[in-house]
Design a protein that fits this description.
Blueprint: E1 2-5, E2 16-19, H1 22-37, E3 51-62, E4 74-81, E5 85-91, E6 95-96, E7 101-112, E8 117-128, E9 134-146, E10 154-164, E11 170-180, H2 189-194
Antiparallel strand pairs: 1-2, 3-4, 3-11, 4-5, 5-7, 6-7, 7-8, 8-9, 9-10, 10-11
Length: 197
Amino acid sequence: MVTRRGPRRAGGRDPPRRVQDEHEAHSIATAGVAFPLTLPSGGTALAATGGCHEYCGDFTAVRPDTCTSAVGICTHGTLTGSVLSTHDFVADTPVFTSATSADYTGHSVIRTEQGAEIIGSDSGTLTIRPDGLNADFVTTVHVVAGTRQFAHATGEIVAPGVLNLVTGATVGAYSGRICLGKGEGDEALWVEAHRSR
C-alpha cells in the first residue's frame, strides 16, 4: 500500500488517502480470476501448453436417429466430469467369440464444449448378461488425432458400461490420460479448465 495526499485543507493538514500500488492491485486482480478457474465448469484458464492430463467421469448414450455403421451399431452420448462434451461412436467390426461374447472395433469423435474434437480408434469387448436384455462392455478409445489443442494428441480413455440391447442406451464411466503435442498454443487452456481435480 502507498499513501497519497489529497488537496490541502485549511490549517495546512493533508488528509491521507490510501490506494493500492500496482503490484498489490495486480495480485488482487489475479486472485479474483484464479479462483473460479479451478472449478470444473470454469471458463478460460491460464495453462501451460502441452503436457499430459488425467480425465475421469460418467457417460450416458442413446441410439441416434441415423447410423452410418455397416453393422448398424451407433451411439450418441454425453460425457460429464473432467471432460464436458458429446461423444459419437460408430461400430465397424463386431466379432462374436461365443454365443454371448463379442470383440468389436469402431471409431469415435469426442466434441468439447469449446468446439475441439478428439478422434479415437476404438476397440472393446461385450458380454451379454443371462437376462438377454443387457450387456456389459469395456471400450478403449485410442486417441489418434484431433483439432485445436488435440491436433497432435495421443493417449487412451477406457470406458466400462452397460448396454441395453432393447433400447440401445448405454451408461457407464470413463477414465484416461491424454498427452498434448508440444507447442499447441493457447488452445491448451481448455484442458486446464476441465482437467481432473
